[in-house]
């Protein structure tokens, strides 16, 4: 469990993400309202209050109440409807819990942490006991600068869980604004699959944030994004998801490699439990096969 100091840092990070997202929406709303005078913009005082907050600001109860009122304004909601891709997708969730989040003794819940965005730097180990068996998870950063650190971890692993966010199909990387985030995930996945060190290691592909993807695709069609314009599946979300899965696995150079794909929402703990149970069975089977106790892969 996180220490009180770590929890405080996480709370501060969530406050910062809310503030930065609302500031982006406010600027977009101002531009929108200048073209649509029928929708009034927020007051000058409200604008100055929001833009006056910085990355070190804490959302107090009073500030939280003011931010919630601004969030409810028609111009901000219109900006949210036509938001840019770099706005936090889970902003409605956080404003729905603003009274709790702005409390002086706020401690982020497990769900809060799942909705927030945190970058992993370096490699972090986590020990988990599941069905009386101990597992060691190593969480590694996905940024380009972090990937060179992966290779020394590959030799001793029993499975790889690769997580990609479906909802990022229209978003671009902070480090390279020309590179689509989902396309980058596909490229990295292919690099991992083609690495000879993990040729025999099963890979579990988690296509996450299905809920946000389903909401976003109603207003931003998948093939409207330039790098996915070849996709002809626009009306049926299930077909689009199958197409995305195809993009991930089509260039796998080791056809015998075991790849299990799950389309998930990490917030659905019941589904995650079932998925992990399947992963557990596969890893145990793979270990038995490595010891010569079974002859075929688990299917």
TrEMBL record:
Residues annotated as binding GTP: 89-90, 114-120, 139-143, 208-211, 266
Protein's UniProt keywords contain Transferase: no
GO BP terms: adenylate cyclase-modulating G protein-coupled receptor signaling pathway
An annotated Gene Ontology molecular function: GTPase activity
Entries under CDD domains matching the protein: G-alpha
SUPFAM superfamilies in the cross-refs: P-loop containing nucleoside triphosphate hydrolases, Transducin (alpha subunit), insertion domain
Name of the featured protein: Uncharacterized protein
Native species: Heterosigma akashiwo (Chromophytic alga)
């Amino acid at each position: 469990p996180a220490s009180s100091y770590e929890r405080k840092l996480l709370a501060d990070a969530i406050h910062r993400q809310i503030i930065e997202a609302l500031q982006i929406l406010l600027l977009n709303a101002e531009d929108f309202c200048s073209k649509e005078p029928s929708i009034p913009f927020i007051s000058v005082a409200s604008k100055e209050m929001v833009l006056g907050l910085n990355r070190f600001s804490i959302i107090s109860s009073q500030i939280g109440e003011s931010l919630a009122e601004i969030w409810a304004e028609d111009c901000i909601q219109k900006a949210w409807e036509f938001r840019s891709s770099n706005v936090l997708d889970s902003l409605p969730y956080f404003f729905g819990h603003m009274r709790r989040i702005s409390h002086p003794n706020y401690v982020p819940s497990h769900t809060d942490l799942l909705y927030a965005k945190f970058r992993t730097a370096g490699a972090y180990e986590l020990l988990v006991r599941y069905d009386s068996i101990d597992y060691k998870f190593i969480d590694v950063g996905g940024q380009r600068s972090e990937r060179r650190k992966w290779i020394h971890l590959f030799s001793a692993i029993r499975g790889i869980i690769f997580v990609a966010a479906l909802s990022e199909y229209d978003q671009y990387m902070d480090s390279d604004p020309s590179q689509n985030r989902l396309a980058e995930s596909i490229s990295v996945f292919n690099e991992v699959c083609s690495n000879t060190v993990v040729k025999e290691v099963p890979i579990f592909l988690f296509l996450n944030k299905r809920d946000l993807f389903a909401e976003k695709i109603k207003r931003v069609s998948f093939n409207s994004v330039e790098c996915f314009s070849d996709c002809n599946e626009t009306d049926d979300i299930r077909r689009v998801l199958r197409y995305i899965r195809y993009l991930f696995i089509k260039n796998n150079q080791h056809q015998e490699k075991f790849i299990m794909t799950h389309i998930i929402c990490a917030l659905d703990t019941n589904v995650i439990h079932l998925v992990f149970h399947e992963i557990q069975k596969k890893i145990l089977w793979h270990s038995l096969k490595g010891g010569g106790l079974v002859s075929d892969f688990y299917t």
